Amino acid sequence: MNDSVTSSMVRALPAPHRQQLMDLAREVSFEPGARLFEEGGRADRFWIVRTGTVALDMRVPGRRAAVIETLGHNQLVGWSWLFAPHSWHLGAEATSPVRAYVFDAADVRALCGSDPAFGMALAQWVGDVLAHRLRSARTRLLDLYAPYGSGSLL
């Protein structure tokens, strides 16, 4: 796992909320090359990776999909399920054998609606994941396109 502690549900959600979420989990596995979802498709579930790696990718006209980020142990795969219109902003593919927990988005959103404290904790967790990923993407873009990379100024 990278330095994003906020991506770990285990550390982000209080124990009672974590248990509520895990009560909705099912175990799944994917072989390398399996597509979890496609950009623009209906976002109706999400995963927490137990083992293996998943690449998030973006379509590039006339080229292969560009890998945006690679996710692994304890990381959240998919956030589009939480925000209308519930469609994927990226695609995702297993790059190694993956074992994960999968969650049905409608069930989780229903739980958020019936238990506001759970909903707030879950939204905070997903928001923290998004904020970390945006910071990471910014750093990668600076490394690629800024004159002197993302290093500190002296």
TrEMBL record:
It comes from the Bacteria. InterPro entries: cNMP-bd_dom, cNMP-bd_dom_sf, Env_Response_Regulators, RmlC-like_jellyroll. GO terms for cellular component: cytosol. It holds the Pfam family cNMP_binding. Residues 9-78 form the Cyclic nucleotide-binding domain. GO terms for molecular function: DNA-binding transcription factor activity. SUPFAM superfamilies: cAMP-binding domain-like (SSF51206). This is Cyclic nucleotide-binding domain-containing protein.
